Amino acid sequence: MERFEDDLYTFDEDELHQRLAELDEGLGSVMLVGHNPALEMLIHDLTGEDVGKFPTAALAVIAPEDGELVSLVRPRELEDA
Length: 81
Fold this sequence. Notes:
This protein has helices at 13-21, 38-47, and strands at residues 59-62, 69-73. It starts with 12 loop residues before the first helix and ends in an 8-residue tail after the last strand. 23% of the residues lie in helices and 11% in strands. The protein has a two-stranded antiparallel ribbon with strand order 1-2.
């Protein structure tokens, strides 16, 4: 199931925290696409990790069980296709 929420077009990590808190705990995964500085701060809040620059098209994977930052991929790190 996919769902798009225009209200999440925000630069405020508190609004992202609020929406995540409202999610059904039974969901297997959630993808959140957004903007900085909100995403950098949200990742730090959830994981305790300072990811530094989180550029456009970067991907952070966070384990829901313990908030561990499982993976961080920046576009410059990808091999040419």
